[in-house]
Amino acid sequence: MQPLTNELKICGWQSGRTIVKTRGFLVVLSGPSGAGKNTLLAKVLPKVPGLTYSVSATTRPPRPGEKHGVDYYFLEPREFQEWIDRGEFLEWAEFAGHRYGTPRRFVMEAIAQGRVVITDVDIQGARQIKQVLSDGVFVFLMPPSVDELHNRLKGRGTDSSEAIARRLEIARSELDAVVDYDYWILNDDLEQASETLAAIIRAEQSRVRRATFMCRKEP
Ligand code: ADP
Ligand code: 5GP
Question: Which long-range contacts (CB under 8 A, 24 or more apart) does 88-94 make?
């Protein structure tokens, strides 16, 4: 047991109420395309109060129903390059012929305000984020099998058979990257997977190193 540092001012035997302020952090969710990241996020966001989704930018055209500023910021390749040149990305990468990036300012401001931010990025993006935000929490979502991944990509009905083949090919090499992450979640049963992700986030919010303890004296 390590001695308590000066920063820790738990009330102890004094009369008063212990107040805990926790620092914000970034949760990075990766996993092969079709593993269920977006479906899982839609389940988890309402379960964890205050959890904030970081909307990425992409040069990929919108799928039916996707909205600019909600699902992605859909940018022309020229605009995406301008964002890169202005240093507006925390990370960016090329995936299956399109560019994807995480807006830096939104993430850093939300973390500075003490919020927990979650972002869905591929493994190249996750590696870049680890270099700059070592305090991040890295979660890898695994499909039950490559056959099931194929079924999910087909069932989603948003990608051509060429795009599906390309994403499956990328998935085969991506699965090995799980060893570089802090947590894995098997997305077999969606409800169970969302409970696990919510539990990971709650546990990370309770890490002592993210906390500042204060003792408010009772009048
Ligand atoms: P990703 O965001 O990882 O590319 P999606 O969230 O779009 O993946 O999910 C791909 C497809 O798989 C969707 O049609 C979704 O409804 C389905 N799906 C997601 N999770 C499950 C699950 N646990 N069981 C069965 N189907 C799932
Ligand atoms: P999709 O085209 O299916 O929405 O996303 C394809 C891939 O891009 C997924 O693996 C997803 O995790 C990744 N992706 C989405 N947003 C970002 C981002 O901001 N940065 C990076 N590096 N990858 C992203």
Answer: 89/57, 90/128, 90/129, 90/132, 90/133, 91/121, 91/124, 91/125, 91/128, 91/129, 91/132, 92/57, 92/125, 92/128, 93/121, 93/122, 93/124, 93/125, 93/128, 94/124
